[in-house]
Amino acid sequence: MSYDLVIKNGTIVDGSGGARYRGDVAINDGKIARIGRVSEKGDQTIDAEGHIVSPGFVDGHTHMDAQIFWDPIGSCSCYHGVTSVVMGNCGFTLAPCREAEADLVFRNLERAEDIARDAMLAGIKWSWETYPEYMDVLDGLPKGINYAGYMGHSALRTYVMGQRAFEEEANDDELATMARLAEEAVRAGAMGFTTSRSHNHETSDRKPVASRAGSWKEIRTIVNAIGKTGAGMFEIAGETTGRDPDRIRDYQQRLKNLAVESRVPITWGMFASRRAPDHWRSYFDLLDETAEAGGRMFAQVHSRSLNVLFSFEAHLPFDNWHVWRDLRQLSLAEQKTKLRDPGLRAKLIEIASAPSKRHEEIGTTVNPPDWDWFFHMDRADGHDVSLASIAKNRGISPAEALIDIAVASDLKALFRMPINNEIDSDVLEMMKHPRSVVTFSDSGAHVSQIMDSSLQTNVFSQWVREKQELTLEEAVRMVTFEPANHWGFHDRGLLRKGLAADITVFDPKNIAPNMPEVVHDLPAGATRLKQTATGILATVVNGQTLLRDNVHTGATPGKLLRGPLASTV
């Protein structure tokens, strides 16, 4: 017997958490046909000597809803061993929506998700209205990796309510329509329903995105409608409660009650903060309380600090500040020339050094620099030096140090400022919690500010190899079986005969993220951050090699992953 593909001589870590072992993997018709010793040849062979053969990594929190139309391979997630993603999180989707009202959807996405309107206009060919129609369109697109998607609340509101969706509560008829459409979407294969109540999510004109105008009654009604199907999940970008214990408890109680009454699994992202130590712990207590009450709820956590990246090539914290604003509107070549002017440099340094109120954000919420936590990013492993330290050693101000470093790099230098998950011990504890899932790359969103598509490779480079806090088997399970199981991808996330052949082959001694870079490869030349990885020999999707040494083979084997009710529609 011959096989389509044989992966030979590797060390298999199958995603279950069980011990590694030597073996081969044979693949036919997109599925694993045999695991063990394979003597037969394949039409193609990958020699995995010295490498780990694991299930493809799974990411349950992305925003590739627009990107999927112009990027067939699913970057940058695919560069980090990811073979399946879930998009449509935080209420942001492209459906349902009439083409004539696409601007309402773009209004939700442009600022909140940092997806340039020009890129969306140039890259998206509109050919749907309803969510089931949208899924059919996605089904027909060339895809490198596998995609699943939620129905988003903001798009649902604007579809039903038009412009009023940004300002008003829904009436009873509108609420009934939204509930019906959400149920229809789940029956057609949507993963569930998502919303945002976060104050960070604003429109391009600084108004709340549409989902934030909806009442809790509206959310309950929609989620309970989904619950009637016996399928689907509810993902929420949580309410802004501040540190008020009464507001926090009220919100948590509503979440728990909704999980119990609807029987719908609820999930949300959780980060720690040095500014509020242990704030996250009450939310993890909530997970246990909900389980004890008969509901299901789990947290999505990251593998490292959440960093906003800055560069003259993309964004700086001062882009909208006096004097800086005029400079940053010039071309990079002109900026380099201007920065040689001692007088202008002095003004820029003075303004950047002065205490300031929160400046005008671009997408994600960023405060003015805290120089002790503002780092020159000259390597990918996170061992960077703060601008405060650099400035002290040079006898200058941090703002002057930033300009000097940037000029010396031809304005290509990257800087990072962690805004959450600053303390590694908190991150590790959250990762190991039995009711959390390591995910939340936000891949496809915040594309010029945040680059977290590398969270999976970071698990191996930081927590397995550098810190030795996780075994290789634990880490593989964290990024394969656990997310696959929570999102119901029961034919993926494990290496087992008969399951889908989504496989990542990597070198455990070298797997790591590379340095991010600023590129302009989006439609209309829009800017984004790009990050590849080292140490990944091959990424196999549905039995075909998508990437070899992180170079695209030309194959587009990805599929649309529909929920369990799709076959009954």
Give the arrangement of secondary structure elements.
Layout: E1 3-12, E2 21-28, E3 31-36, E4 42-47, E5 52-55, E6 57-59, E7 82-87, H1 102-110, H2 117-123, H3 131-140, E8 146-149, E9 151-152, H4 153-161, H5 172-187, E10 192-196, H6 216-227, E11 233-237, H7 245-262, E12 266-269, H8 281-292, E13 297-301, E14 306-310, H9 324-328, H10 332-338, H11 342-353, E15 375-377, E16 385-386, H12 387-394, H13 398-408, E17 414-420, H14 424-432, E18 436-438, H15 455-466, H16 472-479, H17 481-486, E19 503-506, E20 512-513, E21 517-519, E22 528-530, E23 533-534, E24 536-541, E25 544-548, E26 551-552
Parallel strand pairs: 1-4, 1-5, 6-7, 7-8, 9-10, 10-11, 11-12, 12-13, 13-18
Antiparallel strand pairs: 1-2, 2-3, 5-19, 14-17, 15-16, 15-17, 19-24, 20-23, 21-22, 24-25, 25-26
Helix pairs in contact: 4-5, 5-6, 7-8, 11-13, 12-13, 15-16
Task: Describe the model.
- With 569 residues, the chain is of the alpha/beta class.
- The chain has a domain at 315-418.
- 30% of the residues lie in helices and 20% in strands.
- Strands 1, 2, 3, 4, 5, 19, 24, 25 and 26 form a nine-stranded mixed sheet that branches. A six-stranded parallel sheet has the order 9-10-11-12-13-18.
- Strand 24 (536-541) and strand 25 form a beta hairpin.
- Helix 11 (342-353) packs across helix 13 (398-408).
- The radius of gyration is 24 Å and the shape is globular.
- Residues 360-365 have low confidence and may be disordered.
